[in-house]
Structure formats: C-alpha cells, structure tokens
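We treat protein structure as text, and this decision shapes the records that our systems exchange. We quote a single record here, exactly as it is kept in our systems:
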Amino acid sequence: MSSSILEALEVPLSDLLRRNLAPVDVAILDSGIDATHPMLSGRVVEAFGVTKTDGQDTIVAVAQDTDNDQIGHGTAVGSIIARIAPNARLFDVRVLGADNTCSDEILAAGIRHGTAKGWAVINLSLAAGYRLRGDLEAVCEAAYYRGQALIAARRNIPVGGDGLPAELPSCIGVDLGSYQAPFEFGFLIGSPIELIAGGEGIVVAARGGGFKTVTGTSFATPAISGLCALLLGAFPDLQPYELKSILRSRALIGNQKKA
C-alpha cells in the first residue's frame, strides 16, 4: 500500500481544501457548459461537440469561453464540480442534444474521446443503453488501467438495469441519497452502484446566468467527481481502485438511500 493512500485514508476530506492542490483535469460529458456564467468563467480549458456528420460521429473543437450548452444540464453539473474542487480544470464535451438525448454511438464516441485525451476524472451524469455494452466495457476498462477515474450516474428510472457505464466495475457508480453534499455520502452494499451522494435540492449555475435548484442522480455524481479531483490534487499518484477504497472508508455505513 502506497504512502499516499495511507495518508489519504487519514485526512478528513474537508481538510484537503486547505492544501496547495495540484490542478486536476476533469471532463464533463453532458449537454455542454455555459462558460460565460460567472461561476464558470475561466474554468473551462477546452470545449468540444460530438455530432453525427454523414453517418460518422464527429468531434469538433469549439471556443472554450462561450455558451456551449444546449439545455443547461451540463452547466449545472460543471458548477457543482467547480464549487467543490477549486483545483479542477474543466473540459467540456457536449454529447447531449437540445432534446436532452443522444445516441449510444455518440455517447460512446464521447467516452472514447475523453479516455484518449487522458483526462484524470470523467464525469458522466447520463446513461447509455445496453446495445454497446461490450464496446463500453472495453473502453472503460482501458481507462481504468491507465489510471483514469470514470464517475457515472445511475439511471433515475432504471429500465432493466442501473445504466451504463455506471454499473461497470471499472467505473464509480453514483446514486441519489439524502446527504448534505459534498462531504457526506454513503456506500451501497451489494450493488454495482457503489456510492450514494447528495443530489436533492442542490443550488447550481443556470445557463444564461443566475442559479436554480435541481434534484437527481445527475447532480449527485459531480459531487463525487469533485471529491476525486480534491483527492488527486493532494495525492496525484492515486489510482482508481485507491480512490474507491478511500471513498468507501469515508462513506456513512449502510444503504442510506433516499426512497
């Protein structure tokens, strides 16, 4: 066991904010980010859009200081990470369209792009269907072995499962619980979805300015991504399995999931 994880297991998570944290690259695969919002101004390093052009999934770079959001979902998610982890460098990958959906192929293309870029933490506040399970397993496992942490949301309404990639062992799956984000969270025993974080009544940045209140697994997930960014900022050599161990050791005991 490395000295980093031994220290990380002892330090209260809230104390990490008092440290000189290294910058950590955090990708947000979502509806885009409104980088003109005061809460997110200067936080987005690069921005992309993933679309289907002539039958091919195409990844296009866009200006990182503009409104790249389609519906406001990604802006909300990004603001949670930005608030929790001041050391997070945000990378915006827009995969959702104006109808808040995307094809499994576009989502898979976004995940492949994120893992190929080598971003340390990848937040996925969305879920794919099961048709591409084999492809997603291969991509997520490769990222895991490269030391990348993929944090993914459980489906708010499960349809035959918890959703991909959240239920894959190479990811950290997150469900919605009745906790005070971000430093209180639970561990779900006997489930592929490992953590339960506070995602109810969360005040987030609204696209176009101002703030709004949201609820859902989508907003519990970035709380865990933010904590991973804090841990990696303090202990850059931590591996995904060590992040899982640290988070489990700090989780409240029991299946404290909100009904």
